[in-house]
Specification:
mainly alpha; 7 helices; globular
Length: 105
């Protein structure tokens, strides 16, 4: 739903309906919509191999999730709780990339 509508336009009703879950189920797993965004980006990042990470860094504008990364960055600029989670994600991403690079060499 984030890819289809964008983070800011996707409502919680859109998300829960598309997932086939209730609002209660959503809130039992996530604090808010931004929490879901960060977790979605984390899972996407974790699914990528070192090759995909390097390719993404070279061709980021062609990546279908590029707009979500931009929206997450914007959200982090305006919301302190989102900023903390986004910074944690970015720190994890840098550490994972360094670990993959070290393992590949």
């Amino acid at each position: 739903m984030f890819i289809k509508k964008g983070f800011f336009s996707a409502s919680l009703a859109d998300i829960t309906e598309a997932a086939g879950h209730t609002r209660g189920a959503f809130y039992s797993n996530f604090n808010d919509k931004s929490d879901l965004l960060i977790e979605s980006l984390r899972r996407n990042r974790d699914d990528r191999s070192l090759h995909a990470i390097l390719e993404l860094s070279q061709n980021i504008y062609n990546d279908e999730l590029f707009a979500l990364w931009v929206e997450a960055t914007l959200l982090a600029n305006f919301d302190s709780a989102s900023r903390e989670r986004f910074n944690q994600l970015m720190n994890e991403t840098m550490a994972n990339t360094a670990n993959h690079a070290a393992a590949a060499s």
